[in-house]
């Protein structure tokens, strides 16, 4: 296996668009690494530049400590699974799996063994003589993965491989993909715009915006401590509450009351943006914190999202479904100080005095 090191990488298209803009990051040997961001943020271009399918305008790409920036794709030791799987419709599953080895003129015995081994790993034994048109979406995805694994690359690159599956198949494929990657121990870079996939699968996540890296960290770090308001808005199945606040001696003043916060050396009266996830707010019939009235509830299965009007500002909080308050109910909202994050009003960056623990 191999790690990936990217140094000052830029990819600029002929029309002048900087799809990747001066990026630095490293992927550890055997790591499951997610590139996450909205459409057009540059994540797929970055993946294709690692693969050699796009030319780097500046910077370097190293795989297993070897500079591959100017090498053609076939010499980089990478295997890639495309969003549409890119299977050959006229070939059988077995022929699709072994095609990269055939191109390299590997002996027939080696190709047959690769087809046997990977078909067992991905539960494709009974499908080897079928063609892609006779397979379901989930089966086609596994064939594409089998072809990538059979090519014996040092690095596996995945470009939104779950996006063409329905909701149930996506969940099944996500579980399968994570187990497969752990069993193989292969360094994997996974592109997705779905933050739930990234949080569930990755050891580390890079959040991108407009070709730049906005945050790099573990799923827990990115979720619990977004480095800026862009990441705070993007990550999470329920949007983070981002509120105008004012520093008080022991916390922050917000619409409807106050919350405790680690304010450090910030002066009393300073204006900040306060971020607190709905999952970290507790809802009580009465007590300290923010006072408001429930305006709407949304059942999300085992939990409910409660929207509370606090002095004209709508704030979301989650509660167990059995504790869902009725609209019109007065409630109090409270959060522990480490869960209340303070961001600079101008830059949107997390202020330095925030505690390091998540």
UniProtKB/TrEMBL annotation:
Organism of origin: Kribbella deserti
Gene3D superfamilies per UniProt: 2.40.50.100, Nucleic acid-binding proteins, P-loop containing nucleotide triphosphate hydrolases
InterPro entries xref list: AAA+_ATPase (IPR003593), ABC_transporter-like_ATP-bd (IPR003439), ABC_transporter-like_CS (IPR017871), ABC_transpr_MalK/UgpC-like (IPR047641), Mo/tungstate-bd_C_term_dom (IPR008995), NA-bd_OB-fold (IPR012340), P-loop_NTPase (IPR027417), Transp-assoc_OB_typ2 (IPR013611)
Molecular functions (GO terms): ATP binding
SUPFAM superfamilies recorded: MOP-like, P-loop containing nucleoside triphosphate hydrolases
Keywords: ATP-binding, Cell membrane, Membrane, Nucleotide-binding, Translocase, Transport
Domain ABC transporter: 4-235
Segments traversing the membrane: none
Protein name per the record: ABC transporter ATP-binding protein
Stored PROSITE patterns: ABC_TRANSPORTER_1 (PS00211), ABC_TRANSPORTER_2 (PS50893)
Pfam families linked to this entry: ABC_tran, TOBE_2
């Amino acid at each position: 296996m191999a790690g990936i090191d990217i140094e000052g990488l830029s990819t600029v298209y002929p029309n002048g668009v900087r799809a990747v803009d001066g990026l630095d990051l490293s992927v550890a040997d055997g790591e499951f690494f997610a590139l996450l961001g909205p459409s057009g943020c540059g994540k797929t271009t970055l993946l294709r530049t690692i693969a050699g399918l796009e030319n780097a305008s500046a910077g370097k790409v190293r795989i297993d400590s070897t500079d591959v920036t100017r090498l053609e794709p076939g010499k980089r030791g990478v295997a890639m699974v495309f969003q549409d799987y890119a299977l050959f419709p006229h070939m059988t599953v077995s022929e699709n799996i072994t095609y990269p080895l055939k191109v390299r003129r590997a002996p027939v015995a080696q190709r047959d063994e690769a087809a046997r081994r990977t078909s067992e790993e991905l539960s494709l034994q009974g499908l080897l003589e079928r063609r892609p048109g006779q397979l379901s979406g989930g089966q086609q995805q596994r064939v594409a993965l089998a072809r990538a694994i059979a090519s014996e690359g040092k690095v596996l690159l995945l470009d939104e491989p779950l996006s063409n599956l329905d909701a149930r198949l996506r969940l099944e494929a996500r579980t399968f993909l994570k187990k497969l990657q752990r069993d193989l121990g292969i360094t994997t870079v996974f592109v997705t715009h779905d933050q739930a996939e990234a949080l569930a699968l990755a050891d580390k996540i890079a959040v991108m915006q407009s070709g730049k890296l906005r945050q790099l960290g573990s799923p827990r770090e990115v979720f619990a401590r977004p480095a800026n308001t862009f990441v705070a808005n993007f990550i999470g199945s329920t949007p983070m509450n981002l509120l105008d606040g004012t520093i008080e001696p022991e916390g922050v003043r917000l619409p409807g009351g106050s919350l405790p916060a680690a304010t450090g050396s910030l002066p009393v009266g300073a204006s900040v943006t306060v971020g607190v996830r709905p999952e970290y707010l507790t809802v009580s019939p009465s007590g300290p914190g923010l006072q408001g009235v429930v305006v709407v509830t949304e059942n999300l299965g085992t939990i409910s999202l409660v929207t509370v009007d606090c002095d004209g500002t709508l704030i979301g909080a989650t509660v167990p479904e059995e504790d869902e308050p009725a609209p019109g109910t007065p409630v109090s909202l409270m959060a522990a100080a480490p869960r209340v994050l303070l961001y600079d009003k101008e830059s949107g960056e997390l202020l330095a005095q925030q505690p390091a623990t998540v």
